Amino acid sequence: RAYSKHGIYTATRGSQSFLEPLVVFVRDDIAKTNIGPKSERFVPYLLTVFFLILINNIFGLIPIGANVTGNIAFTLVLAFITLVVTNINGNSHYWKHILLPKPLYLWPILMPIELVGIFTKPFALMIRLFANMSAGHIIVISLVGLVFVFESLWVSPISVAFALFIDLLECLVALLQAYIFTLLTALFIGSATADHHAAAHKDQDDQLLNPSH
Q1: Helix (H) or strand (E) segment spanning residue 197
Q2: What are the C-alpha distances in Å from 78 to residues 92, 121, 125, 192?
Q3: Which backbone phi and psi does 10 adopt, to 5 degrees?
Q4: Cα separation of 117 and 144, whole Å?
Q5: How far is 118 from 121, CA to CA, in rounded Å?
Q6: CA-to-CA distance for 113 and 101, rounded, in angstroms?
Q7: How far apart are CA 75 and CA 132, in angstroms?
Q8: Rounded CA gap, 187 and 35, in Å?
């Protein structure tokens, strides 16, 4: 709305100044770097995942807020969507690598491992986000609970001080976990959609241009 009202060459203002660098970061440094030329079609999904996790992580830091990303059902849904998006968009080389891994004489061993790998990647996404967002809240609750365990107000300054310190770390973790989930999602999508023939031709061109390497 700001661009349509003020034009694309005007300086950013208000919330646009905060959001635009994040959007550009996800588009350029996460999507384009890890997916490549086909990244544009996946940018809306990556932006949705990034801001959904980030906003819910921040809400989870509010004392009366719900820690949604600390609920394994929430992270399960996000990981499942990533699983579907990755495998639906997987190209022939991706599926050939899974169903017909080389060397062929090890196919009975490698093929089951590759099939399991399809599910272990999103499973790791699910557990990582859930565990990291739950751990900080558990530590804060434990530190505050020390006041009631020792039944002494002398412990409260130390407990509250450490709890506030952990809360500050949680602010960093909230942003970091949104970044990591989005980055790994882009990596999985990139590995499934990568054009290996184009990459091979690029390597050959690089060798012709730089024979010393």
Answers
A1: helix 196-209
A2: 25, 12, 9, 18
A3: -85, 155
A4: 41
A5: 6
A6: 10
A7: 11
A8: 7
**What pLDDT sits at residue 186?**
94
**Alpha helices per DSSP H over 63-155:** 72-88, 92-99, 107-150
Distance CA(123)–CA(118), nearest Å, equals 9
Successive 10-residue mean pLDDT values, the chain, 213 residues: 73 76 91 89 94 91 80 94 93 86 82 90 92 86 81 79 85 91 94 68 46 51
Tell me how many degrees the CA angle 118-191-54 measures, rounded to the nearest 5: 80
Q: What is the pTM of this model?
A: 0.81
164 vs 160: CA distance, rounded Å: 6
pLDDT given for residue 83 in this prediction: 94
CA separation for the pair 82, 73 (Å, rounded): 14
Distance CA 146, CA 45 (A): 42
Cβ neighbours for 23, distance < 8 A, ≥ 6 positions apart? 47
| Contact present, 205 and 101 (Cβ < 8 Å) | no
94-102 own/partner pairs: CB under 8 Å, 24+ apart: 94/191, 94/192, 94/193, 94/194
Per-residue model confidence (pLDDT) at position 144: 81
Backbone Cα Rg of the chain: 23
